């Protein structure tokens, strides 16, 4: 009698070495899976470092060496070259200094300007230029100086400049002379008042009555101007209205306009106006600032500033 057939399956029992290999393989698979799930940490390393140029390939116009944190260099391939460096630029100081000098015309203060090589002794330079007097063109416009040679600043403390100044023969000249010094020195931020040793220190407000009703601070006498030209100054006029016009060499009006000062009719305020003109050639011209007469509409309190008008294109 035949019974049911039984199938036998044989299983090989792994040895110790096979078991160890399987453990290593499983651990390695886990590491690979963890690496694939981790966030990316890739990124740019930036441009490769560039070797410095040889000494013969660059030139320097300054012996000063700026610290690395403040130096800049043009980008490679840029079409814009780096600006030239001069000794004064490398040290952060300007090469020139523009001074505002206050002279006298018909008993009133009138400003003009000078551009000179920069110096740390700005007050000394200003007084020396003031004593030297006006240029030929300024003198032709009626400007004079009442300041004698030898005026100097002895010290500046807490905004007060102490000035040694020769005594004048009459009080009118003495006051105008002092006003010239006060207005010239107080253009600097370190000076607010001036002490002449004869009375309390004086500021600009103490001599404001010596200003003309309309003062033009720019452009200055003899300046070359281009179109459009900006006219600035201060004024104490009716309803604060200041009129300005540009005249050519023949006295013909090229442009005109008006503006309102920040204060007027009993107080002085600043004004600013820009005018455009056209001329075919460089020529002498005049910038006039004035008040329109309430009586007949004619120009009154006129201030004329002779300039050179450059040709317009």
From TrEMBL:
InterPro entries: GerMN, Gmad2_Ig-like_dom. This is GerMN domain-containing protein. Residues 123-210 form the GerMN domain. Residues 40-92 are annotated as: Disordered. It comes from Micromonospora andamanensis. Signal peptide: none annotated.
């Amino acid at each position: 009698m035949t019974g049911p057939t039984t199938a036998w399956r044989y299983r090989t029992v792994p040895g110790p070495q096979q078991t160890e290999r399987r453990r290593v393989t499983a651990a390695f698979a886990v590491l690979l899976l963890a690496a694939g799930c981790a966030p990316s940490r890739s990124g740019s390393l930036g441009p490769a470092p560039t070797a410095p140029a040889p000494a013969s390939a660059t030139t320097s116009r300054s012996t000063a060496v700026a610290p690395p944190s403040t130096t800049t260099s043009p980008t490679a391939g840029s079409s814009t070259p780096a600006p030239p460096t001069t000794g004064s630029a490398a040290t952060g100081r300007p090469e020139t200094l523009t001074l505002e000098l206050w002279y006298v015309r018909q008993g009133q203060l009138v400003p003009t300007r000078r551009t000179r090589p920069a110096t740390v002794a700005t007050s000394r330079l200003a007084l020396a230029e003031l004593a030297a007097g006006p240029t030929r063109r300024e003198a032709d416009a009626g400007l004079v100086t009442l300041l004698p040679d030898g005026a100097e600043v002895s010290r500046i403390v807490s905004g007060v400049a102490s000035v040694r100044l020769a005594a004048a023969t009459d009080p009118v000249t003495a006051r105008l002379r002092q006003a010239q010094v006060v207005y010239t020195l107080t253009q600097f931020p370190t000076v607010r008042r001036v002490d002449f040793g004869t009375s309390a220190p004086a500021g600009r407000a103490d001599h404001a009555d010596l200003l003309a009703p309309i003062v033009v601070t720019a452009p200055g006498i003899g300046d070359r101007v281009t179109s459009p030209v900006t006219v600035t100054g201060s004024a104490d006029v009716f309803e604060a209205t200041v009129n300005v016009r540009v005249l050519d060499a023949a006295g013909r009006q090229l442009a005109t306009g008006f503006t309102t000062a920040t204060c007027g009719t009993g107080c002085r305020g600043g004004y600013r106006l820009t005018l455009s003109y056209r001329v075919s050639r460089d020529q002498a011209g005049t910038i006039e600032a004035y008040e329109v007469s309430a009586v007949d509409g004619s120009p009154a309190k006129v201030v004329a500033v002779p300039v050179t008008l450059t040709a317009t294109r």
